[in-house]
Design goal:
By secondary structure, the chain is α+β, with helices and mostly antiparallel strands. It is built from 35 helices and 41 strands. The strands form nine sheets. It has an eleven-stranded mixed β-sheet with strand order 20-40-39-38-21-33-37-36-34-35-41, sandwiched between helices. Strands 23-22-32-31-30-29-28-27-26 form a nine-stranded antiparallel β-sheet, with helices on both faces. Strands 12-11-13-19-14-17 form a six-stranded antiparallel β-sheet, with no helix packed on it. A hairpin with a 2-residue loop joins β2 and β3. α4 packs across α6 and α9 (340-367) packs parallel to α27. The two termini are 70 Å apart.
Length: 1102
Amino acid sequence: MHSTRLSSGQWRPRLGLVARCRLCPLALADVLLLRVRWVTVAPFFVYLILSCGFSLELVSGEGDDEWRDTVQLHQQEKPMLRYYVSEGIRYVWMSKKGAFCRVSILNEDWTCADLHQMQQGLSREEQARRKKIFGQNLIDVPVKSYLQLLFEEVLNPFYFFQVCSIVLWLADNYYYYAACIIIISLISIAISLWELRRQSTTLHDMALLIIPITVRRDTGEEETVNSVDLVPGDCIVIPPEGVLLPCDAALLVGECMVNESMLTGESIPVMKTPLPAGDQQYNADTQKRHTLYCGTQIIQARGGMPGGRGAIAVVTRTGFFTAKGDLISSILYPKPISFRFYKDAMKFLLFLGFVALMGTIYSLVVLSKSNVMLQLVIRSLDIVTIVVPPALPAAITTGTLYAQHRLKKHGVFCVSPPRINVCGKISIFCFDKTGTLTEEGLDVWGVMQVKETCFDELVPDPRLLSPGHFLSALASCHSVALLGGQPLGDPLELKMIESTGWELEEPEGTDDEVHATFGNQRVLAVMRPPPQDQAVAIVRRFPFSSSLQRMSVVTVKPGGQKPLAFLKGAPEVVASLCTRQSVPDQFTGTLHDFASEGFRVLALAYKPLDGATDVSTVRRREELEKGMTFLGLLVMKNQVKPESAGVIGTLRQAQLRTVMVTGDNILTAVNVARGCGMVASHERVMFIHASPPTGHSPAVLKFHLGEGGVRSEASEEAVLSQGLYQSGDSYHLAVNGKSFGALSDYFPEQLPKVLMRATVYARMAPEQKTQLVTALQKLNYRVGMCGDGANDCGALRAADVGVSLSEAEASVASPFTSKSNNISCVPLLISREGRCSLVTSFSLFKYMALYSLIQFASVLILYTVKTNLGDLQFLFFDLALVTLLAIVMGRGGPSNELHPQRPAASLLALPILFSLLLNTLLLVLGQVSALFITYSQEWFVPLNSTQTGASNLPNMEDYSVFVLSGFQYIFMAIVVTKGYPHKKALYANVVFVFVLMILFATMLWLVLFPQTIVQMILSLYNITDMNYKMLLVALAALNFFMCFLLEVLIDNGMLDSIRRLRGRHESKKLYKRLNSQLAATTSWPPLDQQLTSPQTTVIGLS
């Protein structure tokens, strides 16, 4: 069978399917109709293949529990495999579940131990069987032929409407107009096809990756295969020089330095280490430091094979199931943007359709007495083509395209242009700290070593330390690697190594010599100290984990000395893993002092290991990272970027909330928040402590001022007297990741209130950042997120507007990528482009709607007197006036300041509807007045013809309506074009002003000093009365003045009186209602009161 989408079901796939097929049980279906991403799509065919004696079934695990079912491949007699493919993902039939399941379900329950057992490799037979089930390892973006694209394009409702309109115009003898529209449509289709083909070709080339790769077979031999043939479970050999990886794989042996900028936008290479062999289930997201992702460039691999070269990994995901496949899928099938402007635009088109229906009925009544039936139908349907402008959707995107072009000039690249308009409605912006608000690099401020359970004095230069465990920990506890003699890694670790004076070196000599030198351990790197100390070899690494907030290494010295384990990480985490007696009593106070001053603090610890320990067999890092001895603190200064304070100040002045989301210490984060202006010097910060329930106590929530401080009653009264509860801006909440998790799980009724007042979120894991963005969106916030793209990918993609600070021109981590390394792009994106684009889209929408209504009125008025506009008159209005003005109107630039008031997003709001309604009435009144002025002239001769429509041109009635409507098209472009506060004034758009002047001069010339040849071409009546002509021009000027005055009054709050009469009503946005409630309460947050969760109950046992 051939999987092709059916043209008959392009618009209504269900109807096409019902006509050809009959309903049957899902297990027997040959064709499926699915809802994919909220849209019913064309039918999918079910494939049947022979599975070589293997099929897919569900076999129960222990007991009868359904949730214990696991998927296995097992031999049985049924040889057929049923599956279908949707958006690149293969779904296979599982008879025990009675459903089609993603084929990835087969390897979702693999444990780390299972992966290590796969080092032996698959047999060729097993590989062939798996390939039949999983399919090819290919991210294939189809590039359709021009003929296919043309066929799909002309089936678009827009072009179908255009074809019907052209047929109608030809039947009504509008040959010139129809010919021009045909030419324009053909050019539009050609450009559209070329752009679609170019985009799909570019994406195809980016997604397609076919390379030779070495795999290990179960016989022990290695063979080179095509990457297309890789299947989950294949054992692959990564060469020392690296490779562009064609699949997702778990690293089992050796280390890899990987550039993941294609996925994350982060240009700093990441060190990947072997996956520990344990019984825990393997998860690529939680064990990303042991996972190699498809599409990432492995720069260097070492330690996995004889000679210390290369690495060994096992394929875990292929094709569209990989991380790269998921990102390509998100580009091919993006999540629909839920934005009110776009929804209202469709609703308004339906309203125009209703207006067209009313106009059609009026036309039938007016023309029924004097027309043959065919002409009557043509004239009536012609109204529909006038009222519903098919170019409306294209016109309102013009402002967005101009904004995208301007953003590109400022180094901001956009992969989702519709989100530019969404930027205009952002109400809260979240910022990562390190590398976003503060400088990427850190300077070592000093170290504090522990001596006899007390902290020694701060030593500003680690080189001044005497040789010992603390200095060795500073020099060796890192993931830095050498590439071409140059160290690569995290800037913090590079600074740390530099401060010690030690140097990173490759192991010298053969493997046997190196192993013998360092106690027969596999050496990953050697740290060479100054001459007075011994070299240290790093033999095992457990890399830094954002969720664990720590990393560790195992080192040995020459001569077979006992290995030492070193630990580095967040001070609180490191201290919790050390023996109690080794942690100084003043630990908490010292950490508090440094963090309060904005220093970045790391703690280090060590533990001697048994000399007989084979560190390569240590399965779980937890076995290593316990019972440590506390060594001291590394204090680093992280400077706030000079641009941060100004940008945050601009956003706060515009009444746009700013929030910091970081993985750093909460006190350091608060200090940075004060430094960049998120928290003003006079504003108080309240800390939230929440803890989950334990065996003897329920979940607890507490709010307090200061870190663990106890306040007196006098202090309480002072706080209350300063209006802590009365003003939402006088205090901020700060919460760490642990408390945020407890709040979400056990205090859901308090979480929305905390979200309304919290400004600092510290020690947040990457998944918690995403959770925060989602929680804010549930309060109806439009959320922006700005980060460096590394640990912020999930939050950047979840936010309504994600901005990644990256050197890449486009990052799939977020819709927007800024080449600047600071947040100055944020007000540019929100004010100078987002709001400008949204206001421009509104203006263009109103203009195109009014253009249709003006022409609608003109045609109905002329139908009433048995005539109509001529062929070239329509052409002159539609192309020379309206199209040209719509193109240049969107060029208007953004304002230089960010105004507190955000632009409207609803086209159905009262001001917009009143503006359209009242302006339409004034415009119709103007045309009717022109007609009556013509009737009142002494020389006027009424039209007396048995014919109707354009066949009785030229005539006086047509002339009057033509003149006034021509001026209306021009001056309404001025009326609807908005300037302050979100755009520059109209006169700043020089091209628009120039076109307006040319078109206005052209209309004056046509009215006052027409040439005979022009009158003949446009079928205009030759009127010589100059006073009458001047009267028409004056009427047009009066009409313009009235429309302009009306628009100014509406913009400046004329409708406020109507709202007052209607009474104050609650906002539809949940966060606004919550804000009002919190501003009115005097009892929240309850300071120094211990709240318990109503969801937990402690049962005492004796």
